Amino acid sequence: MTAEPHVAVPFLSLAHRGTPACVREIRRDVRAFAAEYGAEGEALATIELAVSEAAANAVVHGYADGEGTVRVEADVEEGELEVVVLDEGPGFTDEPGPGLGLGLGLMRRGAVAFEIRDRPEGGVEVWMRFPLAG
Fold first, then answer.
1. pLDDT of 39-90, one tens digit each?
2. Residue 18 lies in a domain
3. 20 to 30 A Cα–Cα from 110, which one of 46, 82, 87, 102?
4. Does some domain include residue 98?
5. What is the phi-psi region of residue 91: left when phi exceeds 0, alpha when psi lies from -120 to 50, beta otherwise?
C-alpha cells in the first residue's frame, strides 16, 4: 500500500467583530492573500471590491441592530480563489434594507461562480470564486 501525497491548499480564515471598521481589515487581508497567490491588476481589484461589498453587507444587513461576527474563509484551488463571507444575523427578510441594492452585482462581477444563501444555523453566506489571473 502506498501513501497518497499530502496536498496543501493555501487557506485564509478570518473572524472580525461586525463593525464598519472590519470591512477595511477584511479587504486588506484578502487582497494580500490573493496577491500572494498570483492575483494582480484588474483581477485583484475585482476580488477586493467583491470581498469589500460582501463584508459591508454582512455588517449592514446581518447586524443592523447590533454586532456579531463576520467570518471569511478563502482558499486557492486550480488557479482560482474561492471566498466565503458569512454572518450570523437574521438572514434574508421581506423587509427592505438600507442601500441602493448595487452590492450583489458588484460581488458577482468578474466571478466565475457566485451564490448567496441563508445559512441553516442563521445568517447569510456569500460564496464567490474568481480567477487569480486577469
1. 999 999 999 999 999 999 899 888 877 789 999 999 999 999 999 999 998 8
2. yes
3. 87
4. no
5. left
